[in-house]
Amino acid sequence: xxxxxxxxxxxxxxxxxxxxxxxxxxxGAGATRTLAAFGAEVIRIEDPVRKGKWDLxxxxxxxxxxxxxxxxxxxxxxxxxxxxxxxxxxxxxxxxELLAQLISIxxxxxxxxxxxxxxxWGFSYERLCELRPGIxxxxxxxxxxxxxxxxxxxxxxxxxxxxxxxWSVGQADQPSAGFGLSYMDHHGANLMVFAILAALxxxxxxxxxxxxxxxxxxxxAALLGPTVLDITVNGRPARRxxxxxxxxxxxxxxxxxxxxxxxxxxxxxxxxxxTNAEWAALAEIIGVHxxxxxxxxxxxxxxxxxxxxxxxxxxxxxxxxxxxxxFAAGIPAAAVQSPQExxxxxxxxxxxxxxxxxxxPLLGPTRVDGIPLHLSAxxxxxxxxxxxxxxxxxxxxxxxxxxxDDEIARLEADGVI
Amino acid sequence: MSSDAHVxxxxxxxxxxxxxxxxxxxxxxxxxxYGAEVLLVEPPGGHDTRRYGPFAEALPVDHPDRSLWFWHYxxxxxxxxxxxxxxxxxxxxxxxxxxxxxxxxxxxxxxLSALGLDHAHIRGPSTVWVSVTxxxxxxxxxxxxxTDLTAVAGGGLAxxxxxxxxxxxxxxALGNQGYHTASIWAAVGALLAIxxxxxxxxxxxxxxxxxxxxxxxxxxxxxxxxxxxxxxxRQTGRHALHLPSEPIVTLAxxxxxVHTGFPPRTLDELVKLVRWLDDCDxxxxxxxxxxxxxxxxxxxxxxxxxxxxxxxxxCFRTCREAIMLxxxxxxxxxxxxxxxxxxxxxxxxxxxxxxxxxxxxxARGFPTPVHQAQLGHDVVHPGLPIRFTGSPGRITAAPxxx
Lengths: 417, 402
Known about the structure:
Low-confidence stretches of chain A: 1-9
Low-confidence stretches of chain B: none
Number of strands of chain B: 13
CATH topology of the largest domain in chain B: Rossmann fold
Largest sheet of chain A: 6 strands, parallel
Strand order of the largest sheet of chain A: 3-2-1-4-5-6
Number of strands of chain A: 12
Largest sheet of chain B: 6 strands, parallel
Number of domains of chain B: 2
Distance between the termini of chain A: 20 Å
CATH superfamily of the largest domain in chain B: Crotonobetainyl-coa:carnitine coa-transferase, domain 1
Number of helices of chain A: 17
Radius of gyration of chain A: 25 Å
Strand content of chain A: 5-15%
Structural class of chain B: alpha/beta
Largest interface: A-B, 160 and 158 residues
Structural class of chain A: alpha/beta
Number of helices of chain B: 16
CATH class of the largest domain in chain B: Alpha Beta
Number of domains of chain A: 2
Oligomer: heterodimer
Order of helices and strands of chain B: HEHEHEHEHHEHHEHHEEEEHHHHEHHEE
Shape of chain B: elongated
Mean pLDDT of chain A: 95
Helix content of chain A: 25-40%
CATH architecture of the largest domain in chain A: 3-Layer(aba) Sandwich
């Protein structure tokens, strides 16, 4: 890669921003990939001794057919698009010196280790400030860096279990379904981007950097607001008979409000009536004539029966046909889309350009998650996939830290990089 | 810089005009709680969301400020009522926009344009204009009716959530997670454009698609499809995957649900697992316990072999059985605390009231008292989602209807 031409310098939202990135997996790497997409220089540091496998996603499936190994992990490639990758063995003094040098020329340091890991390496927040006054340091950790559970270990599903979100997905008469994904890794990452950008704004105004002690359990617990207020204001526990019934419309109340079977094997469609008028229109379409259900209170009371009547109609039709028919009548409806349907067969997804193709030295061209924002003047761009292990060692050590070829060769021989 | 500005939050100094909406309200709350001066523009009589439940039941049913939905999503904001159809109010709106750093709106495409109040008409050169729509501003589908549930169904989140029993429907989550997903991206987009402005001096339009936001919030479901052509399927309490996986959530001895985490696999974890089993005299209840010793002799398990090596698969299954057995042997609290103290990333499934009462969250000051003048006392709100140690931010009550 060559440096961008002078004229392009101000074409990105984050030009000139340099991130010393020690983060990984999705909760951390998912943040810095967004910064890279908007033009930040993200230098991801990995451990040469463990071949970068602190990040569980390096070298695990999904793989492209016939591929295996630490460069072939599909999720790793996705989460590290557009970054530079270097290796530093921070068990060695020279490795720590080089990390210190890199920090001294960075705007922010990002990590999602367990609490105290970075401090054990000798890089407390105080030290980071000495190395680079005004530094922004973001630690992203399930329980945060203070409090009785600060040494507890987490990953997405544990965070979701403890913060209330796992409980919040399920039928009333069944165990918790939970999220079938690390939902909080996504929002941990997105809020980490918010944190860095907000801290940059604060630094521009005050000249001061700061440490951001993110706990994704807190980030997740903040996503159930009206339910929490019902507890604290009305004294009504969320864990009670009839809850969570999470496909139902609780706040605000709506009925019908659910996901119904459609024609075919395991095909489903969401149908919602927000108003009595929408219900009247739906009742007409599905041939239900129950004058009593004209009111929301009656429909909420008889929701099970109402669901049966709606399902009785939806299961006779293709899910996309239901969607189109109800839209035409002004009623919200949506097919539950499979990955193929939402990625490859969805016109709106194609129009947005949501899954761009990036290049990778070993994987070749691959499509990755794009960004759900378009900025009219300084939009995102993705062209290169994840760095291979140590791919940018020479570029960064020579170009940024001023080491010559002999020194770099010595670092390699000594196991520092 | 006064110390007050630090308390107010990292976004002190930013002025935001937010047109009240259901789906972008959380974006405005994030900006406001972190110190931006957010002025909510509502139609005369207040926005519809002021009439969304749940309600503060101590207040009379005709009280205008009893929506807990509104209390939550509009903290730290101020509000003004404007009828954008009236020339005088429209002029006032233009004036407010002229002073704003950021305009945040969730209007359907065409509505503001018809009033001559869209970004193309009234955005100043340095203003950032954030528009949150269902499919993007220029997409014809943004005209379709939508709710949080339909967005979650079409965008991919629902596909991955639910039960092993596929006669039960895919599940959405409680609490507007589709709107949250779009709103968090909208707040990020606003600040990205503020960064862009700091470099170029110019504002711009930030177009946020809720459908796109959900479509990139599916973790590995997308990569399994794009990279390997496999379709993940929903499974009770665990990640959707193209192959069935073993149960991971179980009932503890006190009948509460616990999450047993990713099974132990490294040498260190295997040694700790065997020690825990022995401490509880549970080894003889595990038929294949000898496999754990074998795995220890081999120095742990290589996850990369999990998909094609039978021995690794057997060991992995035995580890899973061992940790499930330990979970069923303890109360939920014991399993969570002991497991974590022994170095295992395990958890318990808490409901929101249990999370609020957790000693760790209390020690960190997460539950946040906010004075609600309607009630004449403080009410605990969920705390801030991000802890800025230098400029924390603060939560104040949502504006009352005047």
